[in-house]
Write a structure and sequence with these properties.
225 residues; mainly alpha; two-stranded antiparallel sheet; globular
Length: 225
C-alpha cells in the first residue's frame, strides 16, 4: 500500500543546537575577522549603501562579496534540495549538517594571514545554507537559525498571547523562543571564551555542534494513504 509522508515534529533540541552554532559563527567572524557579523546581511547592505553614497568603491566591493556569498548559499541549497534530494528535507538537513561540520573544520585550518573578506564570505555562505534548511521546530513554529531578530519578534508575540490572552500553548511557545535566543547567546559567550584559549581553532566547536545536530534530525513519519 502506498505510504504518505505526514508532518514530522521537529525536536526543539535541534533548533537549540543549530542556533548555538549560529551564535558561534557571528562571534567568530566579529572577534577574529575584522569585527564583522557574517551571518546577518542587513548591516552589510546598510554599509554597502553608505560606501556607495560616499563613492568608496572598494568598500562597496567588500560588502557586496559577503552579500553575494549569502545569496549563493541560499541558491545552492535550494538547488540541492530540489534536484538532488527531490524535496526530502530530512536527507537535506543531514547533508547540510555534515557539510557544515566539514566546512568549519576547514575554516580552522585557514592561515592567519588569509584576508578577512575571504573568511567572512565563506562564513556568510555557510550561514545561508544553515538558515535555509533549519527553520522550524515542533510542528509549526518557525525560527531563524543564525540570528535573533525574528526570534525576538516571535517571543514578544507569543508572550503577549500567553500572558494577556491567557493562551497557555502560546506561553509555552514563548519559553521555547526565549530558549532559542539564550542558546544563541550561549554560543557567542562560549566562542569568546574558547577564542581566548585556542584562537582560530574555535571553529572546530561549530563543527562539533553540527555533528551533534545530526542526532536530533527527525526521520519523516509515514502513514498509510
Amino acid at each position: 500500500m502506498e505510504q504518505a509522508t505526514t508532518r514530522t515534529k521537529v525536536p526543539v533540541r535541534l533548533g537549540l543546537t543549530v542556533i548555538c552554532a549560529g551564535g558561534f559563527m557571528d562571534a567568530y567572524s566579529y572577534l577574529l575577522h575584522g569585527h564583522v557579523f557574517a551571518t546577518g546581511q542587513t548591516g552589510n547592505i546598510v554599509l554597502l549603501c553608505v560606501n556607495l553614497a560616499e563613492g568608496a568603491w572598494l568598500g562597496v566591493l567588500h560588502y557586496l562579496v559577503s552579500i553575494v556569498a549569502f545569496v549563493a548559499g541560499i541558491m545552492l541549497s535550494r538547488h540541492v534540495l530540489v534536484r538532488v534530494h527531490d524535496g526530502d528535507s530530512y536527507r537535506m538537513q543531514r547533508t547540510v549538517a555534515l557539510f557544515e561540520a566539514v566546512a568549519f573544520a576547514a575554516v580552522a585550518l585557514v592561515p592567519a594571514l588569509a584576508p578577512d573578506l575571504l573568511v567572512n564570505s565563506a562564513i556568510s555562505f555557510f550561514a545561508a545554507i544553515s538558515y535555509e534548511n533549519f527553520r522550524t521546530f515542533g510542528t509549526r513554529s518557525a525560527y531563524a537559525s543564525v540570528f535573533c531578530t525574528g526570534n525576538l519578534r516571535s517571543f514578544g508575540e507569543t508572550l503577549y498571547d500567553g500572558v494577556f490572552r491567557g493562551d497557555r500553548h502560546e506561553l509555552h511557545r514563548s519559553a521555547r523562543y526565549a530558549a532559542l535566543v539564550a542558546s544563541f547567546c550561549a554560543g557567542a559567550v562560549a566562542c569568546k571564551l574558547l577564542i581566548d584559549v585556542i584562537g582560530a581553532y574555535t571553529s572546530l566547536a561549530i563543527s562539533a555542534l553540527f555533528l551533534l545536530s545530526t542526532r536530533f534530525i527527525p526521520r519523516p513519519q509515514a502513514s498509510e494513504a
